[in-house]
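Entry for the shared binder. Reason: the reviewer on the internal report wants the predicted structure included alongside the sequence.
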Amino acid sequence: MPLRPLDEDVLTEICIDLATNHYGFLYVDEVSGDIADEYESSDVGMLNAQTVGRSDLKAFLKELASNPDENFERLRPGVYFRNPFGRDDREVFEVLAELFAGRQQVVTVEQIRNQFGIAPDDIEFFITELEKRGYLFRIAAGSEKYYSVGSKLEEDHGQNLLEDELRDRSLTGPPLGQLSHDELEEIIQVSATSDVIHYLERNEELIIDLDGEYLIRDTIEAYGEWLAQEIADDIAEELEAAGYAMHTNEYEEVAVSAVENRTDVLDQVGPEHRSDVVKNVVTALDDELNAERDDGIVVHREPFENEIDAHAERIVQPVLGSGAAATPTAKLAEVESDIESLQIADAEATNKYLQRRVHERAEELIREDF
């Protein structure tokens, strides 16, 4: 020990600053010269040693690490760590943001090590600290460890999570909600791509394998909207042939058939996701076609109303202006047999619904005539 004691406050501040500047790590062999230079240029007390030797520094750091109040941990001989994850984590965030700034959203341990400049012996420890605090999300795929954006980066700094990135990329062009294998590889870009894809599909349920294409689970609604736009003309023709009205079950069957004629997605997604896709396609079709549901029947509203008006006007025309019946009820009774004989749709339930709507419209026309 020096004849005069070291200025421990000054030396502590120097060591903390150097560790903080290297994401918490202090490698004594690398920075002992810097510590000595900074100490000698600092305003130390007159009764303290004006220089710090290597052996004195090692003894001081050992004592510093034994003090629980200083949060200074000895990892192994010559290597110390002070938790850098305080209120201000901008430096750690900036390094991670740069790491995930490109198209790649899955990285390796080696990429993280190179980005931070951490020694190989310490990178597992550092990554564990990052993972515990939500900076990184671990993907346990195959025999390797891969990482993506953690929840804290998303919550505190707005960095996209992997599922957000998958969703956003899949919505950039048709078919909406879907990525090709090449597009998914751009996001992953690690040697064990197939292992990571399998993990995302099986463990996280983020993607659905469509045999070389991938449906992003969170975008099934958007995918259903895109499919609905693709088949809307076909469904409109089917509705026209059915008198612009179908029972809901038939309507869904026609929609499913139209989807199957265009893609094998319903077979590829499996039974656990099939109903979700069909539900979203049918819901989007209602909006696309301006369809309405009434008493278990789906109607293509505008052409349906025109069709009902045409049938009602044709049937009531002979009795309008006629004096044969003195009341609206009597005139309606004259045309009821014509309404009941209408055969607009093949399905009995749908045809009865159409007859009822024609009856309602016919009654309106007759009462308007009085």
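Summary line for the report: The chain is about 60% helix and 15% strand.
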